[in-house]
Amino acid sequence: MSTTERAAASKESIGSATNGYTMLLALLAIVVFVPAYFVAGMGAALGPVVGVPLLVISALVFVVIAIGFFMIQPNQAVVLTLFGEYRGTIRKDGLHWIWPWFGKEKVSVRAHNMHSEKVKINDLRGNPIEIACNVVWRVADTAQAVFDVDDYKEFVNIQIEAGLRTVGSRHPYDDMSDEDETTLRGSADVVNQELIVELNDRLRVAGITVDEAGLTHLAYAAEIAGAMLRRQQADAVIAARQKVVLGAVGMVEDALQKLSADGIVELDDERRAAMVSNLMVVLCGDREAQPVVNTGTLYQ
Questions:
Q1: Prediction pTM value
Q2: How far out from the chain centre does Cα 93 lie?
Q3: Are 143 and 89 in contact (CB under 8 A)?
Q4: What is the pLDDT of residues 17-35, one digit of tens each?
């Protein structure tokens, strides 16, 4: 078990705050009634001993109420702390009020889209390749994001690169053998799913959930790109040749069977071999065949 797994993880809980509009009415009441009270002469009737403290208290209450307001937008949360102790998270949008000595940290719980930088890694066969990905992530647990890592956005950036390197090194860039194996180029769905699982496992400690992930760039590194291109071209030529040869063999076989079945010509083994050779040369050659008129026989 890793150090991060052994550490006690924070857990989000529901915080509480007063309705901001209610406190706004209280603030307006102080603004309206306290001046009106003194203008009406009631403050003077109480004398300076009572009137001055009342005015000071009213001003302090006004300041306390005014400082305690905060706004939460849709898909936004506020993490509350009191003297360093976690006191819950408020996710309900709107105007809220809380005592000024509460600490308030806003955390966006919207979906974040991040495109990683191109990184150079070695695939399963040791070939250097360049790879990059796009990741859609969001904060699932605000307490873990704020308290369990130093900077959760920077943490996400670093872990995405690390996860990309891990997944990229598990598979070869391309399938160079006849085996049906998972490759970075040919098995995009499998690789993307592995990347999602890997990133979710790495980012769980920070309360982050990855919704989507996929490769956006995949190429051989510059130092071997030319050699790999020639290899791919050679593979394409070999595959084309194999298809041509298989087709030519089938055509020659059909021709011999047709000649024999229709009784057009009787061929012994030597003549049959010569015909097969000539037909294969004609069908498999890169250039057009040049006809040659044979006025003799195969035995002269």
A1: 0.70
A2: 28
A3: yes
A4: 999 999 999 888 888 777 6
Return d(Cα 251, Cα 283) in angstroms, integer. Answer: 9
33-60 per-residue burial string, b: 16 or more CB within 10 A, e: under 16? ebeebbeeeebeeeeeeebeebbeebee
Nearest to 97 by CA among 202, 6, 171, 26: 26
Determine the Cα–Cα distance for residues 219 and 231; give it in Å rounded to an integer: 14
The two three-digit tokens of residue 168, written as one number: 């990229």
Q: Are 283 and 243 in contact (CB under 8 A)?
A: no
Torsional sign, CA 109, 155, 188, 218: positive
- Homologous superfamily (CATH) of 112-220 is Band 7 domain (3.30.479.30)
Q: Give Cβ neighbours of residue 255 (< 8 Å, ≥ 6 apart).
A: 275, 279
Structure tokens belonging to residue 99: 């005592």
Least Cα distance to 110 among 86, 69, 78, 138 occurs for 138
Q: State the Cα–Cα distance between residues 71 and 106, nearest whole angstrom.
A: 10
Query: Rounded to whole angstroms, how far apart are CA atoms 294 and 300?
Result: 11
Tokens of 60: 């302090």
The Cα 265–Cα 261 span in angstroms is: 10
User: Domain locations in the chain?
Assistant: 3-105, 112-220, 225-284
The phi, psi pair for 3, rounded to 5°, reads -65, -40
**Average pLDDT for runs of 10 along the chain of length 300:** 58 92 88 69 53 76 90 95 94 93 94 92 86 95 94 94 93 71 86 95 95 91 66 66 74 72 66 67 63 55
Q: In what order do the strands lie in the sheet with 102-108?
A: 85-90, 76-82, 102-108
Distance CA 70, CA 29 (A): 19
